[in-house]
Structures are given as structure tokens and as C-alpha cells.
Specification:
By secondary structure, the chain is mainly alpha-helical. It has one domain. It contains 7 helices and 2 strands. It has a two-stranded antiparallel ribbon with strand order 1-2.
Amino acid sequence: MLIAQKTSKQEKIWAFKHPFSAVKIKKLYRQVSPIYKQSLNKLLLDSFNNGGKLDAFRHTYFMAAFAQKVKVKKLRELGIAHEKGNQKQFIKQQTEEGELADSLSNVMDLNNNELGYKIGKENKNLSLEELRQLIIKEINEGKALIMKRNKSGNYLDCNNNIIDLKLYLHKWYVPKCLVSSDYIYKD
């Protein structure tokens, strides 16, 4: 996300086109980031920074907080720029949150961004803590998307087969399966 550890070229272009919004987002990012990093979030969701409820929370929460102060149209452009940056990182074999991005991760992230825009726009007066609690509730009720996994953390395809990620090391399309965020991990 913009102003994170690495800002992609695509995000920098967005910031150049929307300097006032970029300043607002930079300030908000500093406020939202410590709340996102709270260990309580992992207890209430899961510990998957990629493809899990914690990943869904990250995208939904940041975009909801941003949508309280910035127009959704601009945020949608930023979200798309971020995902384009992830695709460029994939080409360079650079990870985000410890994993390579893939096509379905982008779909999941953009979907969860949309949920964030909606929540932020409809709840402009909530505090960041109230927003966090609302988003956790929405995720646990299945309003976001996550990747299907088993309890051991292995990705599953839509037929419940474990995906051997070694077979997809340099592949953008991995046969992962998106499910609603109220999915219960099973073995």
C-alpha cells in the first residue's frame, strides 16, 4: 500500500496525479498501521498475512480508513496501482508479506478493497478502533474473500486438493480457490 515499505512506480504515479490525497493517505497510514499490527487482530482472525483473514483485514481496514477522508474513485485507482505493482514484483520475483503475488491474490485484494471503500464511505464518523471492530465483524460474517486452506496452512484448490506451490514457482496463475471469509479451515 502507498507509503508502505516499498512504494511501487505505479503508486508513485498515482501520488503525483493526486498529491493532496497522497498527503492525507500518508498521514492516515501512520495512524492505521499500528492498529493493524496489533496482535489482537491475529487472535480474532487468523495469522495468514497472505490469503487469509488477516490479509483481508489489511486491505479492508486500510481502504475503509482512507475512504473516510478520500474519494472512492481515487482510492480505487490507488488499489489498482498497488496490484499492478504486485504484478511487477512477481515478474521480478520479489515478495510482498513473504510470498509472491499471483493472479487470484490480486482478485482477492481488489474485492476486499471494495468492501473497505463501502464501509469507510458509510461510516465516516467512526473512530479507527470502531472501524477495526466493525471490519473484524464483517470478515467473520463472511463479507470478505480469502484463499481456501487447511488447518496446516496449505493452500487448497476448489476440489480440496493441497496445492504444491513448488510446481508454480514462476507462474502467475495458481489454482487457488477463493472462499468467503467465514470459511472454517479444516484438515
